[in-house]
Amino acid sequence: MTVSIVRFGGSNCDRDAERALTHLGVDSQIVWHEDGLPTDTTGVVLPGGFSYGDYLRAGAMAAQSPIIDEVESLAAEGVPVLGVCNGAQIGCESGLTEGAFTTNESARFQCEHVFLRVERDDTPWTDAYDEGDVIEIPIAHGEGRYEIDADRLDTLEAENRVLFRYCDENGDVTDAANPNGSRHNVAGVLGDRETVAVMMPHPERATIPHVGMTDGKGVLRAFE
Amino acid sequence: MSLPESDRELIVDALGREPTAAESALFENLWSEHCAYRSSRPLLSAFESEGESVVVGPGDDAAVVEVPTADESDDLYLTLGVESHNHPSYVDPFDGAATGVGGIVRDTLSMGAYPIALADSLYFGSFEDEHSKYLMDGVVEGISHYGNCIGVPTVTGSADFHPDYEGNPLVNVACVGRLPPENLITAVAQRPGNKLVLVGNATGRDGLGGASFASEDLDEDAETEDRPAVQVGDPYAEKLLIEANEVLVDEDLVESARDLGAAGLGGASSELVAKGGLGAAIDLDRVHQREPNMSPLEILLAESQERMCYEIRPEHVDRVAEVADRFDLGCSVIGEVTEGNYVCTYTDDAGERETVVDVDAEFLGEGAPMNDLESVAPETPPTSLPDPAPDLTEAFEAVVASPNTASKRWIYRQYDHEVGVRTSLGPGDDSAVLALPEVSPPDADAAGDAPDEPVGLAISAGAAPHWTASDPVAGAKAVALENATNLAAKGASPIAAVDCLNGGNPEKPDVYGGFSGIVDGLASMCETLSVPVVGGNVSLYNDSVSGPIPPTPTLAMIGSRPGVDVPTASVDAEGELLLIDADDAGPAESLGGSEYLAQFGGTAPGPDLPTDPSARLDAITAVAREPTTRAVHDISQGGLAVALAELCTPDVGLSVSLPEPTTDAGAAGVLFAEGPGRVLVQSTDPTAVREIVGNAGRVRSLGHPTDDGILSITADDASFEYTMAEIRSLRSTIIDALE
Question: Which UniProt key words apply to this protein (chain B) (predicted)?
Answer without folding.
Answer: ATP-binding, Cytoplasm, Ligase, Magnesium, Metal-binding, Nucleotide-binding, Purine biosynthesis
